[in-house]
Amino acid sequence: MKRRDFIKTTAAGLSMAALGGVDALAAKKAKPAVGIQLYSVRDDMKNDPLGTLKKVAEMGYKNVEHANYVNGKFYGWPAKEFRKILDDLGLKMPSGHTVFGKPHWDEDKKEFTDVWKKLVEDAAICGQKYVVSPWLDIAYRKDFDQLKRFMEVFNKNGELCKASGMKFGYHNHDFEFSLKLSSIKVYDIMLQNTDPNLVAQQLDIGNMYGGGGRALDLLKQYPGRFELMHVKDEIKSEKEHGGYESTILGTGVIGVKEVIDIGKKSGGTTQFIIEQESYQGKAPIDCIKEDLAIMKKWGY
């Protein structure tokens, strides 16, 4: 190689390396997305949805996750109208919760019902990346083979959502860890029989605690499987989820910061969604403001 060609090649290589370094640095500095599950302020959303969304935006949230799609509407608004409200407030809705169950899958025809197809269409209109089911009906968790068959429907759901540029997802509670079928935990059956390219997992790090689930163990057992996470802390209670209820982040038993740090590092988590369902006498809207401040303090 001639000297001038060597210099040109070396310079080009150094330039590409520099660009790669800049890109890597930018990626390292980029913060994962932090949002709020609107179920945290469910009464406020029921009484004054627009006013509540304005408060959520004003306190610094950029992302929201819905928990109310009823009769083809989000909190009473058709998809296009709700999308405009979000856009006007500078909010995005990467994910949303709608229980997927018997009204949505025709077992005889082996196809999705029009109700579910419309939900998927509306979710896409609102800019969702994930269509998340936050519950598994007891009808589908009676025996191992039955649940395994239903996980194939989950995979088909992933294909349906993929056609609209989204991904189907599942959000756990506590029974997935306390209930075993053929000596295998329900959650293990679900993760081992769903295609991670089609079905995302939203790890609720608080709900599982009373059922014996531990987020750190799950993140180690299934690295890269948890694209979404419900960020939640828990204290002892007689009311919810096997003797525990949610509370302000960092004040309970979960060890939240360690969990979310590992989720970001090796869990595959890009969507961190705060959820608090119990408030210990505080106003819910004040709790989610405090939770966001704690997440920011932790660097999120």
Notes on the protein architecture:
The chain has 300 residues and is an alpha/beta fold. It has a single domain (34-297), classed as Alpha-Beta Barrel (TIM Barrel). It contains 11 helices and 16 strands. The strands form 5 sheets. Strands 1-2-5-8-9-12-13-16 form an 8-stranded parallel beta barrel. Strand 8, helix 6 and strand 9 (167-171) form a beta-alpha-beta unit. The model is unreliable at 1-29 (pLDDT under 50).
Short description:
The chain has helices at residues 3-29, 42-47, 49-58, 79-89, 114-125, 144-162, 175-178, 186-192, 215-221, 256-267, 284-297, and strands at residues 33-37, 63-66, 69-70, 73-74, 92-97, 105-106, 111-112, 130-133, 167-171, 180-181, 184-185, 199-204, 228-231, 233-236, 244-247, 271-274. With 300 residues, the chain is of the alpha/beta class.
